[in-house]
């Protein structure tokens, strides 16, 4: 493939979805249902283009595109290296897959699909950009699209959740912007690669107060976007009240790409030297991550709503990733990236499964999941496999990520983190097993039992058994399509199959990681 | 003997056979006969595959299959996914796959006899457990064994929680917590530490080597503290499944599972995978030499060997568990504590590090398996036929089930280490091992003797009450809880009232347990449970619903002899279905064979071979 | 210290504004005022950017050089461009936020967060 063509792919990947976002609106004037088709076509061609890009990156190394041909001193670059291409594959693949649910599961309407494409464009921009200010713009585009999509739910709750996310998310992005401003003050450049060279040359080098303050602002900003404890509060509301078709996309991608961006800034801009030489930088990052692991899973255990429980689980899983960033070892970084990808796939599958169950079985709380396995074997089986993969039981992608992160923690000889990582298995087990037990080993009619422990379920419904009737009123079994089920199954199969790809991932990411660490 | 490794897909095939069977079992859920047929076919094929490798293994060949060689990809960077049939693995694989054949017959008889729900899930999970157990046996490095160890915990969970009532759910929760704490936390941590340690002195490795990993021995010199920490983490990880105190309490609770599960899994495959893991760690990860060279510095005591804390825990467990067992009235729970004690024999024998003791411990793996499986199968047969679970209700049951209770007596003698039964041989060697070590190791020999006596004390009363006591005149049990010299009791007094009232607390229930057995007496060849499977089922359900949070013992108390006492049945016909009797007899015969002519049973030869490769010393 | 304040008073102002915006966002119960707080917060950052853009001894890139370089304060164009972009982003955010508030008002009939909490708790 010619260089010019392969260099054009990153631009296409960013520009095409944003431009295409207008099309559903335009065609919507004539055709009611054009949105889904357009979005499917766009996202699947994006996926194909990303695969092509990945092969180019594999054979020829990093692809850099300078927008408008301006040099990086004042121009903007799009960089497709092994790390960003991995994330781009996840973004395009997941966004194409989730459409299998939204076709019949909703939300419908062409405006929704415009927002969908805008979100994909923003995420891809965030992935490929090589410029820290440009990253802010894409962070905000992603944010805007997400706020709108979350608020597109039917209930009024979704608007409140959307606004909450908007206010908190904007603060996060603004703090990041402030950090960028301080970096610019210290160095006079915004390009990531130039920054990496300029920061050590700034007055005082890594001890420059501006640089340190910039790191602090950038980290806190991303901590909000990634939903780390204690600034995670927006996330459970947003995931719970977003429409079932939106949550998989948001949960699998938005925080993931933000976490990727954090890695990009930490490792490409500030570099390993800064992290190791700055006192307490690593310790703070590690502590935030480790506390999030514990707090997130503890909160997950006490949730009644399944989507909310999975949202807190994300807090915990991203805690693992952030803690791995703070370890600053090659193995841990590889593990963090694998866990990002794996978590994205597993969470997308889990939220789609939760959507299918809400649609076809009317169950939204953990208690309502009782007896699900007997009535909806396929989706329950898919969900069970994904939950087990999330716990990190091998062979699964969850285990591969955890293995590398744990090995990294031991290599770094940070024993407290190593302990948290090993214990995270138990923490994840605590909430996953709760759901598994309800689905497989609790008879469906236990709610009708007057002596059931969950007395208030009965009390609120007033009378015997209406809990079930109300649940089945909500259910529309015929609304569940083969496409929805197959995407859950695909996610489950991927989660297991990628469990054998630990070596493949390592080889693929190794050149990037060793470059970062030298 | 020289080891030569041969690439061969048979280890993988042995693991996959029952994994494929899982699919077939689920696919044929509509046809119970076909479904159980798959179990049997898979069991036979599996045993055949394992057996076909035996001659080669005894000649020093190691059959190996690895992911990297087949696909060019390692499992995770630096660590391959290896299945290899070496002598130690063969010992466990041969045992598990052989016993599965008979257990699959027995399970069919048991599950049908009780008309259990979710039988497809049961048989599928059972086959999957065997698949993972073989995976543990053939695992060639610590990561591979970890993979199967975790999977084993996972696939046995549905079996423990099988009953779907709150008791089973709580037992299942406890089971998952304990086993994943052992596997996912301790074992994984130990594995990562070992990898890191070996990477510190060269290429990181986790591959088992007979006599200990040489890289680890080198690393232990440089980082003795971490090497010790890793040792205890690994032992704790496997110790959970081996039910070493204080990590034992899941095992007794797991007895809510159907009896074939308690028998094959919670007396053989699952718990032995723990003991087997301990053997791997001691013999092939650290090696006897390395463990000796890593003394622990204990304040007040001075330097003690790394193995001593493990041995002390095991000795404590085998004594304490035996004492607890004496107080248990529920037969399966009593057997569970007996299992806890017997597994600690194995751990104790291994941790004494003396070749002869290790030899005895390894031989105790099959010896205990045969004996305990007999006991569980008998307990299950009694449950299916008479719904009797409590020892205190079994007075005179020898009349009703002569053959089963005789087999029980054989198994019990084996547990106690009475000569001519398998348990004697292994205990004999362990005592010799402890004796030849001298020093304060005589304490461990003493523990073995004491525990042997305790074994008799808790298993003999069962045999005694079955054959030598009658319904009208028997001692109150458990004996420990009543005045010395016993207290006379009779079932007749309890049964004067309306017995349906006693069983399910006033709920209208026309057909009480007693009438079931009245029907039974009229027909020799067909049993009430077969003819009216729903009878006891509704009975159970009812109890579940109403006593969900009450004393769960309530609804078990519909066992015991029917009014008028046990009827007398011939040992040849009509005692139970042959689907259950045949496996009991075969396994009991196996236990005797291992005890009378151990030289001809292949296990002794394998054990000797393992000890020779691991320690370099030839044992008798 | 005084001297620093004298030369860098714009920084101080920017961060005072930032704090006011943050306080409004957290403490004010009215949703619209919260959004105003967000705007204030962002604007403070924009001001900060503009005020750091002055280059001592700078020189305009296109217009021919001054006779006395450094006499006139010259600003770097890059931060201005950035602020322009950021303002556009901020406007879009405000639009989305107000749209959401309109919807919340239509559903619940209130703009106060405490009332909103009560209404939602009752449901």
From TrEMBL, chain A:
InterPro entries: CPA3_Na-H_Antiporter_D, NADH_UbQ_OxRdtase, ND/Mrp_TM
GO BP annotation list: ATP synthesis coupled electron transport
GO MF annotations in UniProt: NADH dehydrogenase (ubiquinone) activity
GO CC annotation, single: plasma membrane
Broad class of where this protein is predominantly found: membrane
Keywords: Cell membrane, Membrane, Transmembrane, Transmembrane helix
Transmembrane helix as UniProt keyword: yes
Protein location: Cell membrane
Membrane topology type: Multi-pass membrane protein
Transmembrane keyword on record: yes
TM ranges: 12-29, 36-59, 79-101, 113-129, 165-190, 210-228, 249-272, 284-302, 378-397, 403-431, 479-500
Positions of the NADH:quinone oxidoreductase/Mrp antiporter transmembrane domain: 130-428
Name of the featured protein: Monovalent cation/H+ antiporter subunit D family protein
Pfam families: Proton_antipo_M (PF00361)
From TrEMBL, chain B:
Bias (Basic and acidic residues) ranges: 524-556
Membrane protein topology class: Multi-pass membrane protein
Region of interest called Disordered, as start-end residue ranges on this chain: 495-569
Any one GO molecular function term: oxidoreductase activity
Composition-biased stretches (Acidic residues): 514-523
Membrane-spanning intervals of the chain: 12-31, 38-58, 90-110, 122-140, 175-197, 225-244, 264-286, 306-325, 345-367, 403-429, 441-467, 578-597
Cellular component, GO, one term: plasma membrane
Residue ranges occupied by any NADH:quinone oxidoreductase/Mrp antiporter transmembrane domain in the UniProt entry: 139-450
UniProt xrefs under Pfam families: Proton_antipo_M
Keyword entries, A-Z: Cell membrane, Membrane, Oxidoreductase, Transmembrane, Transmembrane helix
Keyword set includes Membrane: yes
Signal peptide positions (record): none
Top-level taxon: Archaea
Keyword Membrane tagged: yes
Location relative to the cell: Cell membrane
Protein name according to UniProt: Proton-conducting transporter membrane subunit
Organism encoding this protein: Natronoglomus mannanivorans
Taxonomic lineage from the root: Archaea, Methanobacteriati, Methanobacteriota, Stenosarchaea group, Halobacteria
Automatic annotation (TrEMBL), chain C:
Organism of derivation: Natronoglomus mannanivorans
Transmembrane segments: 12-28, 35-55, 81-102
Gene Ontology CC entries for this record: membrane
Protein localization: Membrane
InterPro entries (UniProt xref): CPA3_antiporter_subunitC, NUOK/Mnh_C1-like
Membrane topology of the entry: Multi-pass membrane protein
Keyword terms of this UniProt record: Membrane, Transmembrane, Transmembrane helix
Protein name: Cation:proton antiporter subunit C
């Amino acid at each position: 493939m010619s260089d010019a063509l392969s260099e054009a792919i990153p631009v296409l990947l960013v520009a095409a979805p944003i431009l295409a976002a207008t099309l559903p609106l335009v065609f919507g004037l004539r055709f009611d249902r054009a949105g889904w088709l357009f979005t499917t076509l766009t996202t699947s061609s994006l996926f194909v283009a990303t695969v092509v890009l990945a092969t180019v990156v594999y054979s020829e190394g990093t692809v850099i595109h300078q927008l408008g041909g301006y040099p990086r001193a004042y121009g903007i670059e799009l960089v497709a290296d092994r790390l960003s291409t991995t994330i781009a594959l996840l973004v395009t693949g997941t966004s194409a897959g989730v459409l299998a649910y939204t076709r019949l599961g909703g939300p419908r309407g062409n405006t929704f699909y415009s927002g969908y494409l805008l979100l994909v464009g923003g995420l891809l921009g965030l992935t490929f950009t090589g410029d820290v200010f440009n990253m802010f713009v894409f962070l905000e585009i992603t944010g805007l699209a997400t706020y709108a999509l979350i608020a597109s739910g039917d209930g009024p709750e979704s608007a409140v959740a959307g606004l909450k996310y908007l206010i908190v998310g904007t603060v996060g992005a603004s703090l990041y912007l402030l950090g960028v401003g301080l970096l610019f003050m210290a160095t006079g450049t915004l390009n990531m690669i130039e920054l990496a060279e300029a920061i050590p040359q700034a007055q005082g080098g890594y001890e420059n107060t501006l640089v340190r303050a910039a790191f602090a602002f950038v980290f806190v900003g991303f901590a909000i976007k990634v939903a780390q404890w204690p600034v995670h509060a927006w996330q459970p509301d947003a995931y719970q009240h977003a429409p079932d078709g939106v949550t998989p996309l948001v949960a699998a991608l938005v925080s993931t790409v933000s976490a990727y961006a954090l890695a990009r800034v930490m490792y490409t801009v500030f570099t390993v030297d800064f992290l190791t030489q700055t006192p307490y930088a690593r310790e703070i990052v590690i502590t935030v991550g480790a506390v999030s692991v514990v707090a997130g899973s503890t909160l997950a255990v006490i949730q009644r709503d399944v989507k909310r429980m999975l949202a807190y689980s994300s807090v915990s899983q991203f805690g693992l990733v952030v803690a791995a960033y703070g370890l600053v070892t090659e193995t841990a970084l590889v593990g963090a990236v694998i866990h990002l990808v794996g978590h994205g796939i597993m969470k997308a599958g889990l939220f789609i499964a939760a959507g299918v169950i809400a649609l076809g079985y009317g169950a939204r709380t953990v208690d309502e999941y009782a007896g699900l396995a007997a009535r909806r074997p396929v989706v329950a089986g898919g969900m069970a496999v994904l939950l087990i993969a999330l716990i990190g039981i091998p062979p699964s992608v969850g285990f591969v990520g955890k293995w590398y992160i744990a090995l990294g923690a031991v290599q770094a000889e940070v024993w407290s983190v190593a302990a948290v990582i090993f214990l995270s298995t138990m923490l994840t087990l605590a909430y996953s097993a709760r759901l598994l037990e309800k689905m497989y080993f609790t008879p469906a009619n236990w709610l009708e039992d007057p002596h059931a422990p969950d007395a208030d379920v009965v009390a609120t419904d007033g009378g015997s058994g209406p809990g079930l009737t109300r649940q089945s009123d909500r259910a529309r079994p015929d609304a569940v399509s083969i496409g929805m089920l197959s995407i859950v199954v695909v996610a489950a199969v991927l989660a297991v199959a990628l469990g054998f790809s630990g070596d493949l991932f390592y080889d693929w990411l190794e050149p990037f990681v060793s470059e970062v660490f030298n | 003997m020289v080891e030569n490794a041969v690439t061969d897909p048979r280890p993988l095939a042995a693991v996959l056979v029952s994994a494929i069977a899982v699919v077939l079992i689920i696919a044929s859920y509509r046809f119970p006969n076909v479904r159980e047929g798959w179990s049997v076919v898979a069991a036979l094929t599996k045993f055949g595959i394992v057996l076909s490798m035996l001659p080669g293994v005894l000649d020093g060949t190691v059959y190996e299959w690895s992911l990297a060689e087949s696909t060019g990809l390692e499992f995770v960077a630096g660590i391959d996914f290896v299945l290899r049939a070496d002598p130690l693995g063969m010992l466990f694989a041969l045992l598990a796959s052989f016993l599965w054949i008979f257990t699959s017959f027995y399970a069919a008889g048991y599950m049908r006899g009780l008309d259990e729900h979710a039988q497809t899930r049961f048989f599928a999970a059972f086959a999957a457990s065997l698949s993972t157990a073989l995976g543990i046996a053939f695992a060639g490095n610590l990561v591979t064994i970890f993979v199967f160890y975790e999977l084993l915990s996972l696939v046995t969970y549905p079996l423990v929680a099988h009953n779907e009532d709150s008791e089973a759910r709580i037992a299942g929760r406890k089971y998952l917590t304990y086993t994943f704490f052992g596997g996912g936390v301790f074992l994984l941590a130990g594995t990562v530490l070992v990898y890191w340690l070996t990477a510190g002195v060269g290429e990181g490795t986790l591959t088992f080597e007979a006599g200990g990993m040489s890289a680890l021995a080198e690393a232990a010199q440089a980082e003795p503290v971490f090497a010790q920490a890793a040792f205890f983490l690994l032992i704790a990880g496997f110790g959970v499944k081996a039910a070493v105190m204080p990590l034992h309490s899941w095992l007794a609770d797991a007895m809510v599972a159907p009896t074939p599960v308690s028998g094959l899994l919670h007396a053989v495959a699952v718990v032995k995978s723990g003991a087997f893991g301990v053997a791997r760690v001691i013999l092939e990860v650290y090696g006897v030499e390395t463990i000796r060279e890593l003394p622990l510095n204990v304040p007040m005591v001075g330097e003690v060997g790394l193995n001593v804390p493990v041995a002390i825990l095991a000795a404590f467990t085998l004594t304490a568990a035996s004492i607890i067992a004496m107080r248990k009235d529920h037969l399966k729970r009593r057997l569970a504590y007996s299992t806890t004690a017997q597994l600690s024999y194995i751990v104790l024998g291994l941790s004494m590090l003396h070749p002869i003791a290790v030899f005895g411990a390894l031989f105790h793996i099959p010896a205990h398996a045969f004996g305990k499986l007999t006991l569980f199968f008998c307990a299950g047969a009694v449950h299916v036929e008479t719904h009797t679970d409590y020892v205190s209700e079994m007075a005179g049951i020898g009349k009703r089930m002569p053959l089963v209770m005789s087999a029980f007596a054989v198994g019990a003698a084996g547990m106690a280490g009475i000569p001519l039964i398998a348990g004697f041989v292994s205990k004999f060697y362990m005592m010799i091992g402890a004796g030849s070590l001298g020093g304060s190791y005589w304490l461990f020999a003493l523990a073995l003797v004491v525990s042997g006596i305790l074994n008799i004390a808790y298993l003999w009363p069962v045999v005694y009450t079955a054959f030598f006591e009658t319904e009208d005149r028997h001692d109150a049990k458990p004996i420990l809880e009543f005045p010395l010299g016993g207290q006379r009791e009779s079932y007749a007094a309890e049964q004067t009232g309306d017995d349906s009232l006693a069983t399910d607390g006033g709920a209208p229930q026309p057909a009480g347990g007693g009438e079931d057995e009245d029907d039974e007496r009229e027909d020799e060849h067909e049993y009430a449970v077969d003819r009216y499977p729903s009878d006891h089922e509704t009975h159970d359900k009812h109890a579940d619903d109403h006593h969900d949070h009450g004393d769960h013992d309530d609804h078990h108390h519909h066992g015991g002899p029917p009014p008028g006492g046990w009827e007398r049945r011939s040992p040849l016909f009509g005692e139970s279905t042959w689907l259950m009797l045949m496996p009991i007899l075969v396994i009991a015969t196996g236990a005797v064979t291992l005890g009378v002519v151990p030289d001809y049973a292949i296990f002794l030869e394998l054990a000797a071979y393992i000890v020779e490769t691991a320690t370099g010393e030839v044992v008798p | 210290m005084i001297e620093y304040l004298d030369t860098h008073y714009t920084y101080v102002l920017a961060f005072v504004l930032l704090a006011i915006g943050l306080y409004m966002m957290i403490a004010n119960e009215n949703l619209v005022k919260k959004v105003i707080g967000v705007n204030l917060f962002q604007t403070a950052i924009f001001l900060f950017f503009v005020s750091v853009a002055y280059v001592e001894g700078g020189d305009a890139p296109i217009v021919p050089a001054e006779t006395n370089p450094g006499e006139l304060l010259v600003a770097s164009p890059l931060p201005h461009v950035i602020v322009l972009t950021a303002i556009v982003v901020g406007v879009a955010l405000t639009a989305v936020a107000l749209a959401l508030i309109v919807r919340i008002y239509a559903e619940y009939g209130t703009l106060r967060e405490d009332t909103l909490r009560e209404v939602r708790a009752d449901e």
